[in-house]
Amino acid sequence: MKFRFLLWMLGRLMGKASRTNPDFQQQLGDKDLTFQLHTLDGKVARHFIVKDQRITSKSGPAVEPAFSLGFKDAAYGYATMTAKNKQLAFMQGIQDKHIQIQGNPALVMWFQGLTKYLKPRKKK
């Protein structure tokens, strides 16, 4: 349940950033693609559509994603995406085959670069 909520929130945050954050919009560039995050057992899936410098998300698997990130299960996906050192958690998961990437690995790196814009802003 936590993982499903996390993916939904990720969609909301990226959608808002794509409307209001010029740096985020610049990272989206002229990309026109769909990607998905899911569990390998197929119980949880959410896909994200990037088009015209906007991101929208829908529940369920995508028809033909440019890339997909599959986590061994929802608890593992949640733990990985909320880890303090996400990069290490992802690399460890890929090495242990608990995370599977289908599609273009360069786009996965691009997606991970997008997430840095979603951190809450610190109050001055």
From TrEMBL:
Top-rank taxon, per record: Bacteria
Species: Stutzerimonas nitrititolerans
Keyword ATP-binding: yes
Keyword Nucleotide-binding assigned: yes
An MF annotation (GO) of this entry: helicase activity
UniProt keyword terms in alphabetical order: ATP-binding, Helicase, Hydrolase, Nucleotide-binding
Protein name per the record: Helicase
